[in-house]
Amino acid sequence: MPHPPLVAVLPTGRLLRAAAGVLRRAGLPLPEPGEADRRLRIRGGPVDLLFAKDRDVPIYVEHGVADLGVVGRDVLEEQPAHIYWPVDLGVARCRMAVARPADRPLPEPPFRIATKYTRAAARHFRSRGIPVELIPLHGAIELAPALDLADAIVDIVETGSTLRDNGLVEEETLFESSARVVVNRASFRLRADVLGPMLERLEAAAKAKAAPRP
Amino acid sequence: MTETDSILRAPPGAVTLRGDEVRRRRRVEAGAAEVFAGWGYEEILLPLFDHAYVFARGGGRWSERSSYRFTEGGDLLALRADFTALAARAASVLLPAGLDRLSYRGEVVRRPARSLGPAASREVGLEHFRAGVGADLEVLLVALEVLERLDIGGFVFTLGHAGFPLGLLDDALAGNPEGGDCERRRAETLRGLWRRDRGRIRAALGDAAPAVTAALDLTGGPEALEAAAALELPARARQAVERLQELAALLDGLGLADRFRFDLAELRGFDYYTGLIFEIHAPGAGSEIGGGGRYDDLLARFGDARPAVGFSLSVDRIAPLLPAAPHPPASASLSAGDGPRDRRRRRGRRGAPTGRTGRRSMGLLAERFRAMRLD
To answer: Cβ contacts (< 8 Å) between B288 and chain A: which residues?
Structure first.
């Protein structure tokens, strides 16, 4: 019986743009850059591709509708799933950080923390025994301290320029994030014959990217 | 919410099943019960709740935090979150010591990581309170026979041994002590092993990491065990490989090698297991359909020195994988008619081969296992 092709789920948006080169080098049949392609499912190549919202990638992989996926560690920390994270693609690097207004040090706890990443924030402060009031927001988090809605924020930081432009400074780093290849635990066992070489190609492509250009 | 609303709408997680969903689950339970009884496992009925500390002492992945707790007369109680802890306590405290093969079935209630409410799931499983490779092999064969009897296609057992990754980890930490930081580095490394995340292990162990990340490459057939044996290993990891090699040889001798793979990084959650660890996967199920292993310290937490090995199978995950029902549930099938369908069914019961190994040969397998007289 011929085996069905592997299914990979990729996040639409920023992370995919950063990872596309590495993924193409590893043999994933991504549409060429600039091609206007709105398909959510691409079949017929050596690997079937699905495109989903980044926070949904761990769910597709955990349920096994995709054998593997690509997603940032920031999402994996926020969206816990019982899956493997075997390869770090080393792209889309950023960090999860606590930031506060440059002119206003943190007050005595409990802090008021505005964030999109409530789970990561709650775990970070709980592990330090610091009481906080979490204020869940969906975007433009940097506004919250300026309006005195919060004392500080927890958010992803790439270059730090958005923080600077809004008068914020980094107080502490929670963790470093980058794009990860995640794998369904059943596929890891049952499709090892094709998945193993695929993971090796992804790892090699990530290393080639990391190496300095000659 | 008005009372009428709450009468009409069940809370999240409160699920009623009917029709084929029910029949499939009952077929899994009935098939397992028959096989368990055939191997001499006595079914026990365990309570639906107990003191919360029982589940906490059980350790495991489903410890206190995922259980549903409530107070009663000043005691903190919990809904059944795990059978193994309850069975261990029953065996240690209530049951005669001679009773060393127990089986169970029923629901457990847990709070999954992303749930909106409690989630009940059905399990069947067993516990065998004996040391030795013979007991390890026995529980593997019982689980295999259940899946063969249910005609589950393409399932694979993946075997590991807690002593391998934990032996490497403790050796790495001992050779590289950094005071009070040790606990955190150990926990981080376990998380890294659990997620197959080399970077996390490197960050936790530094120069000592390669000895531990080596375990992540040791997966596959018996050649993975040979590759492990060729490494320079601390004693505990060496013993783990030897035990798995012994088991692999026995499985090979029974003609079952193609159903078993090895994975020397497998831990199934944190340091709950002390010996054999296994997971069972099957095409069509996104997570394991069953798993288990050896936990020789578990009964000691309830004051009993006996070792233990066991497993559970997920009734809910196996049910959708069953082949179509051999007989539709027409009301006529309840009567004692003697149509062709009934005749087929009786033939089936007598042991027509099903699946790759087939029922008849599974019976022979049990006989051959007993003839091996392993301790």
So the answer is: 185-186
Q: Which of B152, B195, B260, B263 to mutate to test the interface with A (most CBs of A within 10 A)?
A: B195
Is A109 exposed, middle or buried, given 0-12, 13-18 or 19+ CB atoms closer than 10 A?
Answer: middle
Q: Which amino acid is at A125?
A: F
Other CB atoms within 10 Å distance of the CB of residue B173: 20
Can you tell me the distance from the alpha carbon of B375 to that of B372, in angstroms, rounded to the nearest whole number? 9
| Contact across the interface for A64 and B279, Cβ inside 8 Å | no
Write the pLDDT tens digit of every residue in A143-193. 999 999 999 999 999 999 999 999 999 999 999 999 999 999 999 999 999
The complex's ipTM works out to 0.85
Q: Is A86 near chain B, with CB under 8 Å?
A: yes
User: pTM for the full model?
Assistant: 0.87
| Cβ(A8)–Cβ(A47) below 8 Å | yes
Put simply, whether A118 touches B (Cβ < 8 Å) is no
Q: Following CA atoms B45, B279, A58, B166 in sequence, which dihedral angle do they give, to the nearest 10 degrees? A: 110
Asked if the model's pLDDT at residue B116 lies above 70, the reply is: no
Q: Which parts of chain A have pLDDT scores under 50?
A: 1, 214
- Report the relative pairing of strands A94-101 and A152-157 from DSSP bridges: antiparallel
